[in-house]
Design brief:
36% of the residues lie in helices and 20% in strands. By secondary structure, the chain is of the alpha/beta class. The protein has 2 domains: 244 residues, Rossmann fold, CATH 3.40.50.10840; 163 residues, Four-carbon acid sugar kinase, nucleotide binding domain (Molybdenum Cofactor Biosythetic Enzyme, Chain A). Helix 3 packs across helix 4 and helix 7 crosses helix 8. It is globular. Belongs to the four-carbon acid sugar kinase family. It comes from Comamonas antarctica.
């Protein structure tokens, strides 16, 4: 594997990790996403790969927890010898010094790469995320908002984004010197841009942030990263735009934007553990499902009640009825009842899902919510995911790999709160 491997990435949550899986596969890279640190046997079983990923949950961890999580990842990636080690962040960069710290991730992983240069790619145009003069902008439906004025991200319940300049945002996480290369610089000749980057690297910054204001910028940024990676392996940070930039430089041709998705064979289960406004609209539009509200307090605090919820969901699935199970009591930021922490809720949803699938295996599953997806998939006896099709930008339909025959081959969609169109859950069931 080492001879062909170009990229080894860690996704700080499962939904984002599947977006990078889709991005790499659609760019023609042989890619497999592992659901934990892979064993030597699993790596051997995967065969030759151009890109490997590890789906994690660092976005919801404290710096101490991130140290325990990421240190062995860094060691493994260094052993595999990929020129680019990619720490995959959310495209909105939501993080904080005390939880999901991007600064902490860089401090942990960078010593495992020989190159002191740490590029950060801001923006991901296909998701309507743009970085201009180091300031991040993101869509909320049709309007584009500066991230500190975004109606959802400015009041995220765990990592609210109060600063749009990513250099200042990351300074709060211990990266005191983040240099910036801004998009007007990309109009220079390649040689001039190379000299500018070399001068910045000579100043020994903690990282160098690249603007992405449009898809035309990807290849330029990818070239800058790849040239440095060929000299010495490096750590790159950012959303799936890191892989998009490299693929654009390599002139890899993306697959068609809308692969056909067959209708589900049998009932579909969707689990929405938290409700962003986008997910709330998707839930409201999912008329082909029986909706079952999950009481957050009972779900998180009472194992017997959680078992009964699993029995109720399983009973309907066994009758051939598709079920959309979602938490009740959504608050102003689209989050479930604040009596439970996001981590407690995500863990409880994972336990609920494992119980349901044990009693009533399904062939297609959807999970909404970044933290919910991470903990829910971790609760399953599975070791990998491969890409099947793109349902929407940032939302992939994947195949689960497991030694448990009841789970192996399960089609699974993981989506973040901000991703997908209004009819997403309907398309998961009916295909397109």
């Amino acid at each position: 594997m080492a001879s062909s491997l170009k990229i080894a990435y860690y996704g700080d949550d499962f939904t984002g990790a599947t977006d990078t899986l889709a991005t790499a596969t659609r760019a023609g890279l042989r890619t497999l996403l592992f659901l934990g640190l892979p064993s030597a046997a699993q790596l051997e079983r995967a065969g030759p790969l151009d890109c490997i990923g590890i789906a994690g949950a660092a976005r919801a961890m404290s710096p101490a927890e991130m140290q325990a999580e990421l240190e062995p990842v860094g060691r493994l990636f260094a052993q595999l010898g990929a020129p680019v080690m990619h720490y995959k962040t959310c495209s909105t960069f939501d993080s904080a010094p005390h939880v999901g710290s991007i600064g902490a991730a860089i401090r942990i992983l960078q010593p495992h790469s020989a190159n002191a240069f740490v590029p950060i790619v801001g923006g991901q145009p296909n998701l309507k995320r743009y970085c201009v003069f180091s300031n991040l902008f993101a869509s909320a439906g049709e309007p584009i908002h500066r991230i500190d004025r975004h109606p959802t991200m400015r009041q995220h319940p765990v990592t609210p984004m109060a600063e749009a300049d990513l250099r200042l945002h990351l300074a709060e996480q211990g990266l005191a010197h983040v240099a910036g290369i801004h998009y007007p610089d990309y109009a220079q000749t390649s040689d001039t841009l190379d000299l500018q980057l070399s001068a910045l690297i000579a100043q020994k910054p903690d990282a160098v942030l690249f603007d992405i204001a449009g898809i035309d910028h990807l290849a330029t940024v990818g070239r800058s990263i790849w040239q440095q990676a060929l000299r010495q392996p490096l750590l790159a940070v950012g959303p799936s735009a890191v892989v998009q930039a490299l693929a654009a430089h390599w002139e890899s041709k993306p697959a068609a934007t809308r692969e056909a998705i067959a209708p589900a064979q049998g009932p579909v289960l969707v689990l929405a553990g938290s409700l962003s406004p986008v997910t709330a609209r998707q839930v409201a539009a999912a008329s082909s499902y029986e909706h079952m509200l999950l009481d957050v307090a009972r779900l998180t605090n009472d194992a017997a009640d959680r078992r009964q919820m699993a029995l109720n969901i399983s009973a309907r699935l066994l009758q051939g009825i598709s079920v959309l199970a979602c938490t009740s009591g959504a608050g102003p930021a689209g989050n479930a009842d604040a009596s439970a922490s996001p981590r407690e809720l995500a863990w409880a949803c994972g336990d609920l899902l494992a119980q349901v699938l044990e009693m009533s295996p399904v062939q297609r599953l959807g999970i909404a919510g970044g933290d919910t997806s991470s903990h829910a998939v971790q609760a399953l006896d599975a070791w990998g995911l491969s890409y099947q099709a793109q349902i929407a930008p940032g939302v992939a339909l994947c195949r689960l790999h497991s030694d448990d025959t009841r789970l192996d081959g399960l089609e699974i969609m993981l989506k973040g709160g901000q991703m997908g169109g209004e009819m997403l859950f309907e398309e998961l069931l009916t295909g397109r």
